Amino acid sequence: MTEAADQPTLPGEPAAKHHRSLTVFYAVMCAAIVVGLFSFWFWRTWTVWWFDADEAKKRQSAAAGRLRVPVEMELDLGGGVKMEFVLVPAGRFRMGSPAEEVGRRDDERLHWVTIARPFYMGKYEVTQEQWEKVTGVNYSDFSGPKNPAERVSWDGCQAFLQLLNQLPALAPGPAPSGKGDGARARLPTEAEWEWACRAGTRSQFCSGDADASLADYAWFHANSGNTTHPVGEKKPNAWGLFDMHGNVAEWCNDWYREYVDGGWASQLDPAGPATGSSRVVRGGSWVHNTNGCRAARRGTLGPQNGDCSRGFRVVMVPARH
Fold it and tell me: Does residue 274 sit in the same domain as residue 135?
């Protein structure tokens, strides 16, 4: 017999070995569960960016609370004419459209974008009475004080914004108190516009994918009667923004180019290329079909041009943010 065989077996030794085996097994299982839960959390955090209307309102209120600013504010233009703004919180989303979206175009490639700073966006498209109050003129085709200003070029928008920023309420100063003071007015970037339009949705429209649902939110070819309409007559999206689809297509600040795909890396506050020949127009208008009003649909036009289907809305960024 070997020396090992001659060694006596200590009482309880098999049980101790069994206990150690179970301990290792449970430790491995617990580690696997922790890794699995973390992986699920990581996947959900980085891929599931969309949210419903209730969550949109919560994020909006939370952003206002952190910044100590109101969710909505007004800018007094004088003579009883005011501009209303809604706070859009920061966030991360996939800009563009999926390959299976009906009517998708090649320049709508999906890519990650992070909007790092909350901003105020015009609750409505700029109206004719607002345009006339600031510039002193009105050359819109479809006359009406509450109708959106149209036949305005990108260059014309810049002239309007320059005058708007000369108002005492927008002079450099303290952070906003709810009346616009301390902020500067500009056009939205294309990324800001789509983030604001979607308001947490990943569908064709803020109302869903069905064409029929759009009629409650937008004026477009099938229901417009070939004219613009007073702003705010349709339902708003979850942020409280009206006419993000239809009525008039809206100028963005960016020069147009095809999207740059950064893979999983998120682009931070993209502002478009430094130069170009055409500026971006978004949202579709009274003359477009439903496809032309999709949240991801991109239009372009030379900055010096304007027509009766083009308008804009204003973004205000608080001076301290």
Answer: yes
Cα angle 289, 210, 88 (rounded to 5 degrees) comes to 85
Q: Across the chain, what does the average pLDDT equal?
A: 87
Tell me if 245 sits within 8 A of 283, measured CB to CB.
Answer: yes
Total domain count, the chain: 2
Q: Do residues 315 and 118 make contact, with C-beta atoms less than 8 angstroms apart?
A: no
Tell me, yes or no, whether 194 and 273 share the same domain: yes
Query: Which residue, among 186, 183, 205, 178, has the nearest Cα to 194 in the 3D structure?
Result: 205
Q: Are 62 and 206 part of one and the same domain?
A: yes
Q: Which domain holds residue 132?
A: 50-318
- Evaluate whether residue 5 is within a structural domain: no
- Residues 129-176: tens digit of each pLDDT: 999 999 999 999 999 999 999 999 999 999 999 999 999 878 654 444
**Could you tell me the pTM of the whole model?**
0.85
Q: Please, what's the b/e burial string for 29-40 (b: 16 or more CB within 10 A of its CB; e: otherwise)?
A: eeeeeeeeeeee
Q: 57 and 36, same structural domain?
A: no
Q: Does a structural domain hold residue 4?
A: no
Q: List, for residues 277-293, the tens digit of each pLDDT value.
A: 999 999 999 999 999 99
User: Cα–Cα distance between 291 and 103 in angstroms, integer?
Assistant: 6
- CA 312 – CA 247 distance, rounded (Å): 11
Mind listing the pLDDT tens digit for each residue in 69-114?
999 999 999 999 999 999 999 999 999 999 999 999 999 999 999 9
DSSP E strand boundaries for 98-222: 111-115, 119-122, 183-186
CA separation for the pair 231, 125 (Å, rounded):
7
Q: For the domain that residue 183 is a member of, what is the CATH number?
A: 3.90.1580.10
Nearest to 125 by CA among 316, 317, 310: 310
